[in-house]
Specification:
The protein has 623 residues and is α/β, with parallel strands linked by helices. Among the domains are: 112-354, no CATH class; 463-535, P-loop containing nucleotide triphosphate hydrolases (Rossmann fold, 3-Layer(aba) Sandwich), CATH 3.40.50.300. It has 25 helices and 10 strands. Strands 6-7-8-3-9-10 form a 6-stranded mixed β-sheet, with helices on both faces. A 4-stranded antiparallel β-sheet has the order 2-1-4-5, with helices on one face. Helix 3 runs antiparallel to helix 4 and helix 3 (46-61) packs antiparallel against helix 15. The chain starts with 8 loop residues before the first helix and ends with a helix.
């Protein structure tokens, strides 16, 4: 955290109050578990102190045994009742805080990530901001996670301060009766000076501790960067994904260099260790020393007043304990406010992410549900430039999808194929021009309804580590027969028959050791089956056979009509031989459609781009 990024106290107060509202909205029970447990445990400490003072005072005064017995019983019952309540609140806190806080915080990020426009989520600045937040959270626990911890500590400190005030106020107002012993303590000015001195020492104690703590905040970037490196290199040797490469290429030195080097950031000779042994360590030692001095001053003040007859032995125990706790609570309250101010910088980062705007217009029109899949899409003079880019990824593209058409899109890397698909699926909106669905600008349709028109198999698809049937259906409640049919049409039926648990087989071993690590080609078939199950009128297949062997690839092509049925299908591929079965082929180059037609018509244009690409690939097979 740079000095220029410091936040004023009023702004930090607003950020912390907002953090409270956000967390309370996300989980009221979690926040209440913090507050109730913290407040009660801190305040209840004063109960046995007060009752003990009453018992000792009664013994000192020679009160009747019945009164003393009653006080002892009340002390036991009060302590027991408090213990039961404390145990209940501790369990309440454990359930909602220790076991539930992180998922609640993570849910806040997940909901924001899944609700934001894809264009915003795909922005490198957004990814960088989320990475920074994750590193701050995982490294030093800064941000909302630190706020929860500080909230708990602040509640304890406030309860300790309030309880101390209740049991300590008479310490200052009680008058010395012995004229020979410290009568000057009765003077109002002395009383004010004593109270001010105690408060000053308490605040100074915590202020020094906060100064020391600020060194960690100021070095949060370095701490997070070090934590990120340690998280990678420190555990690289235990990574299952890297196990083969680690052995073949002898990558152990990467781990050893990080773990064995004592000058690394978290090592004994690293920068944080040097700080702890030096300036920060001295500050913390001074803070602890002042805390002990405060205890000594309070004890001396109480002792002098007791010697002067201001109060008896019973109140000496009450005042000594409660006064120290009062000033420690006051000291901690001030320190926590300082830490909240320092943590506000990280809260601001959290809220910068949460407040990212979604500029994409969502639309309100309902898409007509048609059994005949009679949907037509048209690109009208569409151009698109990625945010921050100087050049257009697509320029003046006009194209119409005929209903039920099999369209192949081909071209070299960077020619605009993927951008075309992103615009078609409205992951981005055009910079210029418009895209029409049945003659209406797609921006006017309800966004989620528009997405439901498409089934897409992306080149870089991902499959969650859930049960096979759930993944195919994208739901835990699904039609098993329909899922099996989709897998069969995708060419996965033989493999499905070999699985002992069938559709209940977990993909991978992340959640179940009996799960199956499917090959890349098998995963690609599952992804195709997922698109089939969705049963949308438009199907987009981006390099759907890239991970398949030639035999499996041929099987997919053979089944393509069965897979596509009467859907309008867009097929993106680098392998031109796979495009021959399509009704039309669009050739992209430098963001434009430079050719379109059937395979035969394009190949007949010997000087065209398609023929050049075809001949370049064909030589590897003809030779």
């Amino acid at each position: 955290m740079k000095e220029t990024e410091k936040i004023s106290f009023p702004e930090s107060l607003k950020l912390n109050l907002r953090a409270f509202r956000v967390m309370y909205k996300a989980s009221p029970k979690l926040v209440l578990s913090y507050i109730l447990h913290s407040f009660f445990t801190a305040a209840f400490v004063y109960v046995p102190i007060r009752f003990s003072a009453l018992v000792i005072s009664a013994l000192e005064a020679g009160d009747p045994p019945e009164k003393i017995r009653l006080l002892v019983i009340l002390t036991i019952l009060g302590t027991a009742a408090g213990g039961v309540i404390s145990a209940f609140l501790s369990r309440f806190r454990s359930v909602y805080m220790d076991e539930g806080a992180y998922p609640v915080i993570d849910k806040i990020w997940q909901e924001k990530a899944l609700s934001m426009d894809f264009a915003v989520a795909d922005d490198p600045k957004t990814q960088a901001l989320m990475t920074e937040i994750r590193q701050f959270t995982n490294g030093g626990g800064y941000g909302i996670w630190r706020f929860l911890r500080l909230l708990e500590s602040f509640t304890k400190a406030v309860a300790s301060t309030l309880g101390g005030i209740v049991l300590t106020v008479t310490m200052f107002t009680s008058r010395v009766t012995d004229p020979k012993t410290a009568v000057f303590l009765n003077h109002p000015l002395v009383t004010l000076l004593a109270a001010a001195a105690f408060i000053l020492i308490a605040l100074l104690t915590q202020k020094i501790a906060v100064w020391a703590e600020e060194y960690w905040y100021k070095n949060a970037d370095e701490h997070s960067a070090g934590n990120r490196l340690f998280g990678h290199f420190g555990f690289m040797g235990m990574s299952r994904d890297r196990a083969l490469d680690m052995r073949i290429y002898n990558e152990y030195p990467f781990c050893e260099r990080w773990i064995g080097d004592k000058t690394q950031i978290f090592s004994s000779k690293g920068p944080f260790a040097i700080l702890s042994r030096g300036r920060v360590g001295r500050m913390m030692a001074l803070s602890a020393a002042l805390s002990m001095i405060l205890t000594g001053f309070v004890t001396a003040y109480v002792g002098l007043k007791a010697l002067g007859g201001a109060f008896g032995i019973g109140l000496v125990t009450q005042y000594t304990a409660s006064a120290v706790m009062l000033f420690v609570g006051l000291s901690e309250s001030a320190g926590i406010l300082g830490n909240m101010k320092a943590n506000a910088f990280f809260l601001k980062k959290n809220f910068d992410y949460i407040d990212l705007p979604d500029p994409m217009y969502q639309g309100t029109l309902t898409i007509e549900k048609r059994r005949d899949r009679n949907y037509e899409i048209e690109f009208k003079d569409v151009s698109f430039k990625y945010p921050g880019a100087d050049t257009f990824a697509l320029k003046n593209v006009s194209f119409r999808f005929r209903i039920g058409q099999r369209l192949a899109i081909v071209g070299e890397n960077g020619s605009g194929k993927t951008t075309f698909i992103k615009l078609l699926a409205r992951l981005y909106d055009p910079t210029e021009g418009e895209i029409l669905l049945n003659g209406i600008d797609i921006r006017k349709y309800d966004y989620k309804e528009y997405l439901s028109v498409f089934s897409v198999v992306f080149q870089d698809f991902s499959l969650p580590a859930l049960k096979l049937g759930e993944v195919v259906a994208s739901s835990s409640d699904y039609d098993r027969k329909r899922a099996e049919d989709a897998l069969e049409r995708a060419g996965f039926s033989e493999r499905l028959s070999e699985l002992p648990s069938g559709l209940d087989t977990f993909i991978g071993k992340d959640y179940d050791v009996s799960g199956v690590d499917f090959s890349g080609g098998e995963k690609q078939k599952i992804a195709i089956a997922r698109a089939i199950y969705r049963d949308a009128p438009f199907m987009i297949l981006d390099e759907p056979t890239a991970a398949l062997d030639p035999k499996a690839e041929a099987e997919v092509y053979r089944r393509f009509d069965e897979i596509a049925e009467d859907r309008t299908t867009v097929f993106i591929s680098h392998r031109l031989s796979s495009c021959r079965f399509c009704d039309e082929i669009a050739v992209f180059s430098e963001g434009k459609i430079i050719q379109n037609g059937t395979h035969e018509s394009l190949l007949s244009d010997a000087g065209g781009k398609y023929a050049a690409l075809w001949n370049a690939q064909a030589q590897w097979y003809t030779e």
